[in-house]
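User: Quick one: structure for sequence A, then sequence B.

Assistant: Sequence A:
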Amino acid sequence: MAHTLWTSTNTSGTLAHMAAAQSGLDIQPRFISLRAGEHKQPNYLAINPKGEVPTLQLDDGTVITEIPAIMTWMADMAPASGLLPAAHPARAQALSWIAWAHFRMGRDFSMAFQAKRMVDGDETAADVLRAATAKRAAAAMQYVDQHITDDHTLLGGTTITAPDIFVAMLSRFAGFLRIDTKAMPKLRALADNVFAAPRIKAAIELEAAQG
């Protein structure tokens, strides 16, 4: 039996979907609609009581949540994929980037996208929160741009790693927030490199086909 990745299009679940595709593991995506509230339905809550995506459900029923844990499991199960370096200190550096990106996604990007909900519908407060968090998201993208190597990766070399996938998706979220990345050439090159990878490109096309 294949493992199942519960996810939703154009969300943080896309990160796990891209990593799953790049890993080459037998992981089948199963898309649910957050807008329709399917993540809060009893059948999904029975799998992930947090009511969030992504969720990786292994073929033996084991459930793994949270992107860093999901990416690490995939990397360990498919070491040849290069999602994470096998040895330290490179592995520790990769995990550090994943932790950094995961924190920024929750603190800055998610807050910007959910500003109105976070302030109970107060439009004025939402505008202030959205502007402040988008500013922090832009600063995060400027920071990462300064650390991308000439190989268009975070760790150097030609292998696309889990941190590269994470940062590429953050750059896409930055576009949704109208953050101008024209002055971040290395970030744009990394994202282009990631999204052009055949398996990742196929995963993105599959999500687009979901409508």
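Sequence B:
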Amino acid sequence: MARRKKVYEGKAKILYEGPEPGTLIQYFKDDGGTVTAPKPGAQTEGKGVLNNRLSEFFMSGLNSIGVPTHFIRRLNMREQLVRMVEIIPIEVVVRNFAAGPLSQRLGIPEGTALPRPIVEYYYKDEKLGDPMVAEEHIIAFGWAGQQDLDDMVALALRVNDFLSGVMMGVGIRLADFRIEIGRIWEGDFMRLIVADEISPDSCRLWDMRAAERAEGMPASDPGPLADVYTELARRLGVLPSNVTHSPKPTLIN
């Protein structure tokens, strides 16, 4: 088999050249942690397989309701075919409940419902710790224009509506999540689409079915990382038959 050309490798994924111009193969690794528990270098067996299925589920759902994504199709247990995009170097974070950095910065009790979804921007630079930035920074440094920002917010809020509804339907509260957005060109026309992945790596999820904790509050112990992914996949009906981690309903982080 011909050796594939690696285009990029991150903490949780590898991108290879695709079989057709304008495509890439996205390979999901078992490395890394979640948005709530980053563990660089750590490995969890089967995590890449589950993230591949979960991202396929969410991206396909978004495509079906008219929210454009880079996802084309899943190729195998760990790989999917995606469109090549020019990634905007900004992580867009949508927060529905106070948690993590927001609670720490503003002193809002964790689990407090926000009066409206809050959209934040973080500059993608691991060496700098992905610092939070304002719209003025993004425009001044040429990372995106004002129209781009307006479109990014609109995309992020549509993703939020979709994900919140899907999660609520399986007893999970979507506290917050992050997405990446990229540019694609169709002739002389440019548009923005959702890229990268949507999985537990990039979401803060709270189990609404856990009777042992107070309403609106996250579980104090999310449990083993692998089972977090397994339980979400089980509830959504996308658990691969050869992944056998024991599902536990209190393991959504």
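Residues 219-226, 245-253 have pLDDT under 50 and may be disordered. Residues 146-169 form the longest helix (24 residues).

User: Thanks, that's what I needed.
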